[in-house]
Fold these 3 entries.
Entry 1:
Amino acid sequence: MTLRLEMDGPGGAGIARLLIDRADKRNAFTLAMWQQLPDLLAQAAANPQVRVLVVKSAHGGAFCAGADIVELLANKDDAPWLAANQQAINRAQFDLTRFPLPTVAMVEGDCVGG
């Protein structure tokens, strides 16, 4: 798994949880994850019962280890891949910063960039 969205059902507290679920790689982000994020944000924003978004690790221990360095190194000479990766990162970060509801990062464990 990579990312998944869990939302309270009817009568719930109105919490959407965006879970980073890649424990074997300490939740390091891949291109596919960056590409997936805007769609999950749109799903949460479109649900009228959602009042807050919580971004957290699905497993604890590590919130996020940054970028998947193995994937970056494997594609370091692939200009189209690098451009697509940067475009996906930019879009995901843009959409996250403009998410229309309160957003909480529940950081438990390591949170690093790379």
Note: The chain is about 35% helix and 25% strand.
Entry 2:
Amino acid sequence: MVGFYLLAIAIVGVLFFIPYAEWAYGGRLHLRLALVCIVSGGIVLWSVVPRADRFVPPGVPLDSGEQPKLFEVLRDVANATRQAMPAQVYLVPDVNAWVANRGGIMGFGSRRVLGLGLGLLTTLKVAELRAVLAHEFGHYHGGDTKLGPWIYKTRAALGRTLVSLAKRNSLLQMLVELPFRLYGWLFLRVTAAISRRQELNADELALRTAGSQALVGGLRPSQRGALAFGPYWSSEVAPVLGAGFYPPLAKGFEHFISAAPVAESLTEPLEQQFASDPADPYDTHPPLAERIAAAEGNRERQQLDETPPALSLLSNVPDLEVRLLAHLGDETQIRSLQSLSWDEVGRQVYLPRWEKLVGQDSEFLAKETPSTLPERARDLAAWGAKLQEPEGAQIALDQRDRFAASTLGAALAVVLVQEGWLLHALPGELYLDRNGEKISPFEVVPRLAAGTLNPEAWQQQCVTAGIAALALAGDPAN
């Protein structure tokens, strides 16, 4: 890091010296060359000047008065790792925990900050959370957070320098840019290797504090939760918010990650995450397989007693969730939303959307029945080209087949509800049920198209369920 600033000062010195030497020793001055040198030197100087860290709160601030149980655990871990408590603790919309020194310039005048993800608290037990916190406090213990601002600011200054120089295409400025590019390549590789070592050192402190079972027990579910949180938010939470409601976030995420379809979809990505591939030179974290192997081979094998969910440490979770949503969006708008349980989401949010979608294409859907879905699945794109696009949306040509499958799924869901089937629409699972017969309406057409659902088997299921001849929409002429 110091090397970067020494390199910058040396290059600036050379750039400023060129026009001076030409004038002082040669008695002449090439104005164009002098201007390029001075401008290039000024760009480098401007780019490397340290900027003040303007800290933007990442979430909802938590304090010990409102959250006594959580802060009791935080103080216990801080004492066990011989570290001071962070000055500020935030609840953040993520499946993660992190520590940092924020504010000030280059780390000077900064304060300790801890971020705790709502998704992380939902996925872990208290004992596992203690291990995660001990790992994060390990970054304080090793001085990593003091080094962090220097690395971050140096990386930012390096980036500004390269971007600024790249805007100008003179030969001299390309030559000035070259040493910064070479230094940047070396800097990123070296600091990434340092970061990986810091992570393993923090794991060692967590092992001494909480034991290997708690640490490994925290790594596995937190990784699963991290993979699931984005899809949960986009596919489950966002539609409810868009309909004018807000659901219980933590309860929904807990159900989402335990739902069988979600667990199945995460199997392959998790296997890849836990594979023992060597770390990329630019990775800031060692592979999970390496961390788990190191933890399981450690002697600190404290017995992991059964502990309550980490979410139980939070008081007044519904209010915290509303405040978290307000932090992410417009507070006035969020406060105007109505609370809605996940049990009600199916009928209050999804069903009206499906009915609207089906209504705009009832002319085509009235000619279809559940038993004709195999025929439609054979040429979804062509059939989908006949459908109207939703208001305010444009469906790309290569997405027509997916849009057609969704429309047919919505039509099937609507007609089954009209026939008295019960709609189950909890996070991560959606199906209709009648007398023990279950149908997942949005899986039927994709599975028929992919060949994983036999057409004859589906048609027989329709006959057995008594839905084979049902029109998927009412005839608009009637």
Note: The mean pLDDT is 82.
Entry 3:
Amino acid sequence: MKKEYRLFSLSYKNIEIYYKNNGGQKFVQQLFLDKSNLLRKLSTIISPTLLYYTYLFLEPLASFLLIIPQFFRALSLVRTSQHVEVGQINRLFLNFAHLLISRIKAAEIFESSTYWLEKPFKDVSCKGLEDKVLLTVFEVLTISDVFYALKSSILATLYVAIHNPYHYVRNSSTSFEFYLTFKAIQRFPHQAELIFGNHIDRWAILFDSCPQQEKTLIMHGIETKKADWPVKLKTVTKVYAFNEELGKDLKKALLSCNPVFCYMKPTINLVDDVDDHNFKVLIVCHPASMRDREKYLISHLQLDNITVYAKTHYTTPDVSFYEDLTKKYNFRLITYQLFPKVNILISYRSTLVSEYEICGIPTLMYYDYTLEELVEQIKQKASEYCHS
């Protein structure tokens, strides 16, 4: 049991290192405050640090309170779901990562897919899987499995609350669905192939530990050249990467095995506004740490020969900050899966950088230039474009 609930905490080692390298607790506190308008308003009355540490202290108790209703819901779903025999399934797609379906299509293995496992209490879209066989963990599990998940999640919550050297919010309430999934996948044949798109999160750690011998990782996002995660995946047998260079970065960052590498075609379709003859710039927005930079760039690129797009991250829960900016400045806010054809990107190191570069569109990276240099470069490129 100890080994199994330590498994849950291993994913936090990776995530904590990520937070540490991106500004530490200040970065995490900003992510925490960005969860809702209420938290941001409270932070104007209460010290953000005090608010954060209060939440951190109460998080284990809050997790217990969230796990209990999940437990009773899971019991009900297992009792009422029709049990599915999975002994003959030889290939299982794990729909636990956003954008996985589009990545699967880019890898050209979507048509051959049949069985897809949904996330418990799902928050990942199944749009596009209408003609596939969608399985839930509740169709596979038994009542005793649900009690196992409850016991394990309580132990995991206590464990990660004690072993928390960087004092980051752990969101331990997710441990219950973690152990439900852990037991469910164990029910599938060990010779079956698992296909997933998770890199460093708890699901990646879980899938890597499952007994199935064939595991295919679909590259979901990019890893920096400096990334070297303390907990790596050891049992991946095949990887679909965006290209050879990014595949090497991924292997160095998170794999301690030697899988076969395959490569995907471009994963986005660019939409061109043919009636707009301006120099077009896409600012790739970060959910927390880039807001001041984004505002500066938008405000300083208000020129007649430049069209500015700002695309929010798909996980950004609240876009009111950007909506307020549209009232002050002229730019096009994109909050959905639209990818405009532009002349250049301004971005942090995101997946979109690689996807646009595959389409032949260059990028200026935030940390390679000062804000003044970025604005000056865009103005110069726009002037050259309009006079060409």
Note: The chain has a mean pLDDT of 89.
